Amino acid sequence: xxxxxxxxxxxxxxxxxxxxxxxxxxxxxxxxxxxxxxxxxxxxxxxxxxxxxxxxxxxxxxxxxxxxxxxxxxxxxxxxxxxxxxxxxxxxxxxxxxxxxxxxxxxxxxxxxxxxxxxxxxxxxx
Length: 126
Fold this sequence. Notes:
With 126 residues, the chain is mainly beta. 0% of the residues lie in helices and 55% in strands. The strands form four sheets. It has a four-stranded antiparallel β-sheet, with no helix packed on it. The radius of gyration is 15 Å and the shape is globular. The model has no long low-confidence stretch (mean pLDDT 90).
């Protein structure tokens, strides 16, 4: 919505090792695509937040990153991160919905849709 690419990941190459492994968030202007070559020359708003277990799919909208996380053997939910102000705005625990693993989020017709590992699609209402 604002021509930004928002990226997230870990300090280490592990989604399950929480020791010295902060979650990393940053954004940049959408890169130009030329003949399949994509270059990112500058990132904005690079910051770290405490480790998020098993980061999954996400979407960004108006300065917020809506990130699904978790696994069937642990906590699962949604974190809303303000990547401009560099803070976590909201945490939603999906445990009240049972034991399942979120895979991805999308924004569709004013709603947030989340897919599960088993292929179920949920519409989130707030």
